[in-house]
């Protein structure tokens, strides 16, 4: 039996980001799991450990391929440590690779970190990710107004403390083979690092939210990467 495909959304957006790709994968006969991390944002710290536990628990003790988009990438190492041999492989989709022992703030350009600090309200909350950029930029990514409204509605307010929190150590990372699907130029450095690890890399000329606008293409490329991983099937 093939491992299930565990699609992990960035904590900065909603789980619906994966919905079109999940439907495409399911239509092609694949078992898909899409955990929802939004509830972890209001529970307080430790954010990353709680999110990783939710991801691991959603596997229900079954072997999985962990597939993370964007800000979900750094969570994969902690979730994989919890899953142990249950983590049969990884696919990063326009995602940051895990940075155990470092916070998000330590891995981004100083101007972006300063931008976040300036946006926080007195209670330490940031506006939804969809409001970080201009309306024109979001519309360029998601031209369909109804699709854009649906995406914006699923983006939660974000605790600044989550970005300042250090990711748990993961001394054995990576514990399985991985692959990388690059959708936008912003993730060239991560794709290059994946290539240095000896992982297969696919560079698809698209944009960061192609999961919503080109789900069949993204699903097909994910399956192509998985097909190149030396997965051990479930007995």
Q: Helices and strands in order, then pairings?
A:
Elements: E1 4-8, H1 19-27, E2 32-33, H2 47-58, E3 64-69, H3 76-83, E4 87-93, H4 110-119, E5 125-126, H5 135-141, H6 145-153, E6 158-159, H7 160-164, E7 178-182, H8 188-196, E8 201-203, H9 210-213, H10 215-226
Parallel strand pairs: 1-2, 1-3, 3-4, 4-7, 7-8
Antiparallel strand pairs: 5-6
Helix pairs in contact: 1-10, 2-3
Give a verbal description of the structure.
This protein is 36% helix and 14% strand. Strand 7, helix 8 and strand 8 (201-203) form a beta-alpha-beta unit. Helix 1 packs across helix 10 and helix 2 crosses helix 3. It has ten helices and eight strands. It is of the alpha/beta class and 235 residues long. The strands form two sheets. The protein has a six-stranded parallel sheet, sandwiched between helices. Strands 5-6 form a two-stranded antiparallel sheet. It has a single domain (4-107, 166-226), classed as Rossmann fold, CATH 3.40.50. The relative contact order is 0.19.
Tell me briefly what this model is.
This protein is an alpha/beta fold and 235 residues long.
Number of domains: 1
* SSE-based structural type: alpha/beta
Counting H and I runs of at least 4 residues, what is the number of helices?
Answer: 10
CATH superfamily: Alpha/Beta hydrolase fold, catalytic domain
The proportion of strand residues reads: 5-15%
Given as residue ranges, the uncertain stretches (5+ residues, pLDDT < 50) are none
- CATH architecture grouping: 3-Layer(aba) Sandwich
Average of per-residue pLDDT values: 93
First-last Cα distance: 7 Å
């Amino acid at each position: 039996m093939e491992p299930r495909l565990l699609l992990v959304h960035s904590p900065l957006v909603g789980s619906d980001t994966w919905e079109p790709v999940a439907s495409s994968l399911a239509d092609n006969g694949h078992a898909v799991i899409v955990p929802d991390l939004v509830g972890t944002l209001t529970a307080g710290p430790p954010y990353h450990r709680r999110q990783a536990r939710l991801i691991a628990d959603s596997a229900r003790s079954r072997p999985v391929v962990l597939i993370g988009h964007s800000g979900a990438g750094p969570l994969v190492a902690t979730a994989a440590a919890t899953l142990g041999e249950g983590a049969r492989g990884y696919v990063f989709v326009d995602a940051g690779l895990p940075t155990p022992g470092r916070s998000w703030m330590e891995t981004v350009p100083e101007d972006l970190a300063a931008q976040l600090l300036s946006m926080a309200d007195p209670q330490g909350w940031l506006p939804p990710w969809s409001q970080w950029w201009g309306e024109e930029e979001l519309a360029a990514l998601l031209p369909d107004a109804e699709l854009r409204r649906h995406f914006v509605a699923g983006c939660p307010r974000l605790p600044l403390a989550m970005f300042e929190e250090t990711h748990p150590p993961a001394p054995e990372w990576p514990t399985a083979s991985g692959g990388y699907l690059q959708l936008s130029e912003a993730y060239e450095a991560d794709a290059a690092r994946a290539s240095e690890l000896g992982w297969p890399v696919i560079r698809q000329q698209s944009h960061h939210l192609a999961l919503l606008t080109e789900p069949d293409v993204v699903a097909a490329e994910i399956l192509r990467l998985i097909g190149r991983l030396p997965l051990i099937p479930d007995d």
